[in-house]
Amino acid sequence: MGAEGEAAWHRGIERECPDEDVRGNLQRRATARRRGGKVGSPLVNTLTRSNVRVTGPADGRTIVLAHGFGCDQNMWRFVAPDLAADHRVVLFDHVGAGGSDLTAYDPQRYGSLSGYADDVVEILAALEASDVVFVGHSVSAMIGVLAAVAEPDRFSGLVLIGPSPRYIDDEGYRGGFSQADITELLESLDSNYLGWSAAMAPVIMGNPDRPQLGAELTNSFCRTDPAIAADFARVTFLSDNRADLAKVAVPSLVLQCSEDVIAPYEVGEYVHRQLPHSTFVRLEATGHCPNLSAPEETIKAIRAFLERL
Amino acid sequence: MSADPPAEHIGPLTESAEELYENAPCGYLSILPDGALFRVNQTFLDWTGHRREDLLSRRVQDLYGVGSRIFYETHLRPLLHMQGEVRGLAMEFRRADGTLLDTLVNATLRGDPATGSTVLRMTVFDATDRRAYERELLAERRRAERTTVRLRALQEMVLRCAAIERATELVDPIIEAGTAAFGAATTTVWLLDIDGSVLTDASAGHDDAASIALDSPAPQARAARNAELVGPRQGEVADQVSTPLAADDQVLGVVSFGFATARPFDDDEIELMRTLGRQAGQAMERARLYEETTRRAWQSAFLARLGRDLDEPVAPADRARRLVSLVVPELAEYAQIDLVHDDRAGWLAGAVPPAAPDPVGSIGPAGPWPLTDLVHETIRQVQTSGEARPVPLAAPDGRPAVGLPLRARGEVVGTLLLAGQALMPERIDAEFLLDLADRAGLALDNARLAERDREVALTLQRSLLAGERPIDSRFHVTAVYRPAIETLEVGGDWYDTFVTARGSVGVVVGDVVGRGVRAASAMGQLRSAVRALAQAERSPATVLQHMDDFVATLEAGQMATLAYAELTLDTGRLRYACAGHPPPLLLSRDTGPSYLWEGRSGPLGTRAGSRRRREAELSMPVGSRLLLYTDGLVERRGERIDEGLSRLEALADRWDTPLVSLTEQISDAMLAGDGGHDDMCLLALAFDGAPRFDAEIPADIGTLRPLRTELDRWLASYTVAERERYRVVLACSEAVANAIEHGYQRDPAQLVRVSATIDGNTVELRVHDAGRWRAPQATRDRGRGMALIGRLMDDLIVDRGEGTTVLMRRTFREAGR
């Protein structure tokens, strides 16, 4: 069994195993095995692990574009070229998505958003980037918040597109989803995970030792390992980072779409109220992905923010 | 585009584009950029149960199930933006009745270059059956994955168990396997006790663990009774499954899995649980076998050591003490031995407190615990009733204890109390403890019997050795007997001294084969026989020949050895004979020490070769000494006998040492170091010949002066220093004056006898009068004389029997020239 195959095999186990401790043990073992075979410098590992791509002038201000749940860095394909004209634009894939190193997936590390935030910090350290403006879409908005709280000196601004610190309604808080919704979502993810790859035959029928068959995807973008995607969904939709917002010291921009079913308007406003130095901009764009559906409007809002920094 | 159809198909094929759209075999949706539904075909309405007018005011994302809605926003829509189309994505639409419709959708963005607006066209295919099939496949795959996980957990357990040697340590891997393989919230290992009547929770690892009677209706008990898994029936749910822990056909216990919530179990899972029980059972059986083997080996080694170590000490109390130190701390924290009195009338109260560090002090009341008669009786009854078993007790300090009967020769001779924890409790069982108690009982009883035997023998030997010694001024004799150091057991060495009617002194040293009472009695008979024969016979050889006849009738005397020597006191003629005995050592001032190797023949009763016994004869110079001894004096382990003889020769050549001191010094020196394995006897005869100084003077003060002169000259001839001579002469003069004055009241017809001997550098002086002591008025004078003598001499003994004998002794401080 190859490293990837074994990793996939373990993810299969881990998702099925109801006992947290045992799952943790299995995962740690699998991780240790996977890590045992890894070689190379930490720098190279960090950059290849997250499929980091840097464009634009090297002396430009560093802008990190972080994709959200469900896709990969292709999310920025209409935004990045514009910003790269006068900025050093950093694109990457979260581990488990796009061109990231799937073998680097460690359920323990990525069992909470802070694991993803650690990756961001590591990428920036590897690139020796400072004065960074982090642009996070969807769940990456909160990942950016956590990274900026962890290492405030590296950041000079945050752009949060469709942010939500908590998706589930709470007392005195409306996140847009009921507990029952999220339960249904997770069940649906569980049974529908084939949909993520849209390549069910190889995945179902194929030998799980040869997941590369599953990589022959009908859709060439937003490739996501279905098992990791399910984990990511769980981490994302069960997260609650409301308390972290107040800790952000750098200026931030909240970009809120109209009619966003994932991150409703009230949530964007809430984020804006909680962030100490934030600007709130409501976009004309509808849906959850203005970076795709309304790239010009998105770029304009980001540039306006950059100018004020 | 289309060919003309055959005539009979014209009817069904006359279809408008409208009809084709509405009743197409797929749902068809046209959607505006914000998601608003612009057009929906009838097929979609039929499938979902929605009404057209309701739908056209809604957005497509509102029709999705929650999962699909997020999928749509986060995945499908971004893909459309990037690719313009998506194919074969699984989406769930919510029907009017709230249920979900499984579909596969294809979607294409269609832009109008003129307006720049885009419309989304989506075809929806009913995928209910296909998704159901997929779900089955998925379920199957997950089941296979689960099975793999379970098998792996099981393999891991088997692997771990294979490396475990103690049965109790198997519990953890079994529990971990239960959790890893089946997700059990609790896995409990119940072990069947030795009687097979109670299941005890082995997971708890303490004494008050939960237990279940085997005949109870509990599922664990049922699983053990029927040797079959107890779980839910087909299609039912359960929150507990119990499977027997079995090796081959033997049930050792039960493994029960408890689950947080009741759930169904598939056949594979149930079968794996059975397998886990069997595998764990086999591992348990193997570990128990190993433990059993280890335990047996340890027990045999312990008992062997016990046997060996208990034999070392001789006295019963020492053995008991040794026993306690052997069992503490390995078998218990405290041990106590109570022994029955010899007369069986009661119990020996003196139990044995363990050697330091003293566990009694730390755990119990000071001193041994008094065991009540009831306890003793219980232990004895256990024995007499024939069912030997340890009797559980509570020690006075409350800790659990066990009482064991100490048995020997079919009797309970005492009790052994073991209290507190053993170092390795799992190594100890009732059978072992009884075995140990039996061995200990026998060892203690043997010691008791041996001691009794030894006491008798010792008494006997003392009575023999302490016989009256002949007194004659022409010789003196001293002897030393030492028992063997290790056993303190009475050996067969003996000696005797007697004077014969012929004016000779006989000395004999012998060695009887064997030990104890038999040997003591044999040497008593030999001694009497030698005495009797020596009176009647004229030569040592004939004495030995008659001894041969004698031992023929006396089994214990066979192979006895002896050295017999007879010294004629008038002439100094020494005749001697050795029957298989080490040679006598003659110490002469003139010629130095020499062994007497003549006159040798075999041990008594051997009758080998000629019956003739040899003897030898020599002239023993006045002042010389003769040593007779047994082999215990000169034999050492790992040393040739001639080395021992050489050492003795060197040690004996000390003329300054008085005879009594000489024998003690030789014994000490010869037995020092590695000596003393055997008992030994050393006899020394000093031939003084005629008394050095012997005078009889009339009880007349006038005779004192010549007496003083003569004594002084005599002393001088032995090179006694002048000042020492003065002291002795003065003391003698005082004693004689007393005899004349008070013994005889100056009656010149009476004689005062004076004799003096010198042995080494000690002078012994005797003054004897036969008169009756009188004249109390003169007490003061005479008392003054005695006081003076006391200061002049070391020893002063006044013997008033037939007359008065004053014995004075002085060891010279000042060397003569």
Task: Give the secondary structure arrangement, pairings included.
The complex is a heterodimer of chains A (309) and B (817).
Chain A: H1 3-16, H2 20-36, H3 42-49, E1 53-55, E2 61-66, H4 80-83, E3 87-92, H5 113-126, E4 132-137, H6 139-150, E5 155-161, H7 179-191, H8 193-197, H9 200-205, H10 226-237, H11 242-245, E6 252-258, H12 265-274, E7 278-286, H13 290-293, H14 295-308
Chain B: H1 10-13, H2 17-22, E1 27-31, E2 37-40, H3 42-48, H4 52-55, H5 66-83, E3 85-94, E4 100-111, E5 118-126, H6 128-162, H7 171-182, E6 186-192, E7 198-201, E8 211-213, H8 219-226, E9 237-247, E10 250-264, H9 267-311, H10 316-327, E11 334-339, H11 359-363, H12 373-384, E12 391-394, E13 400-408, E14 411-419, H13 430-465, E15 475-482, E16 493-499, E17 504-511, H14 516-536, H15 540-552, E18 561-568, E19 573-579, E20 585-588, E21 592-595, E22 600-601, E23 616-619, E24 625-629, H16 631-634, H17 641-652, H18 659-671, E25 680-687, E26 693-698, H19 704-717, H20 722-743, E27 751-759, E28 762-769, H21 779-792, E29 795-801, E30 803-811
Parallel strand pairs in B: 19-22
Antiparallel strand pairs in B: 1-2, 1-5, 3-4, 4-5, 6-7, 6-10, 7-8, 9-10, 11-14, 12-13, 13-14, 15-25, 16-17, 17-18, 18-19, 19-23, 20-21, 20-24, 24-25, 26-27, 27-28, 28-30, 29-30
